[in-house]
Amino acid sequence: MTAGKIIIITAPSGAGKTTIVKKLLSEMPDLAFSVSAATREARAGEVHGRDYYFLTPDDFQQKIEANAFAEYEMVYAGKYYGTLRSELERIWSAGKVPMVDIDVKGALSIKEKYHGHALTIFIQPPSIDALRERLGGRGSETQASLEERLGKARYELSFSHEFDWIVVNEHLDAAYNEVKDIVEGFLRS
Ligand code: 5GP
Asked: CATH number for the domain including 181?
């Protein structure tokens, strides 16, 4: 049964979530990635409409006023991210289950809204130090943005118990298999 279901995966930036989400999507045809809207700059290699709908702050504001978002948050200072209702509808109409990759607050508000149809998974990094290493290695962060992401990660970790499942990403393959089992169980239920 897939009708009306929604899967929400959350993790502090750098916890390995994107890798897990991409692999799930490539192996599970019932799932479709819900492309969020965001006002941050596109990183090298990111594509509008595939990674995010990159919007100007004005466009984002207009969509807030038009009630176009299932949820939205200012995830980082001045940077807005949101899940478009139209995106969820598009995926449900195609008979698939949206996979939503969002921050903790957004995840909890979606869970409340789609209560009973939502699966929430929190991917936890083994430690803040491991996170610092992974983020530093990515090369896309300045010292200030790295510190901001780590600060947010500490904050997000304090909400992990509100999720249906917590998966610790110590070893990527093991974490992936665990998430896959959870998702398969949810799709069958
Ligand atoms: P990044 O800038 O690294 O792509 O994403 C930063 C954070 O924004 C991640 O934690 C990601 O999960 C979160 N995010 C992405 N899309 C959304 C969204 O639509 N809503 C919310 N609330 N957070 C989002």
From this structure: 3.40.50.300
Query: What is the tens place of the pLDDT at every residue in 38-96?
Result: 999 999 999 999 999 999 999 999 999 999 999 999 988 899 999 999 999 999 999 99
Tell me: pLDDT of 36 over 80. yes
Q: Ligand 1 pocket check: which of 48, 84, 101, 123 to mutate, most ligand atoms within 8 Å of Cβ?
A: 101
Decide if 1 is inside a domain: no
Q: Which domain holds residue 28?
A: 6-188
Q: Is residue 97 part of a domain?
A: yes
The total of structural domains in the chain comes to 1
Dihedral sign from CA coordinates of 31, 134, 73, 123: positive
106 lines ligand 1 (CB under 6 A): yes
Q: What is the pTM of this model?
A: 0.89
Q: CB under 8 Å to 161, separation ≥6 — which residues?
A: none
Residue 96 in any domain: the answer is yes
Sequence-distant (6+) residues with CB within 8 A of 86 are 68
User: What is the Cα–Cα distance from 129 to 172, expressed in whole angstroms?
Assistant: 17
Task: Report whether pLDDT(1) > 70.
Answer: no
Residue 37 counted as domain residue: yes
- 1: which residues sit within 8 A by CB, 6+ positions away? 187, 188, 189
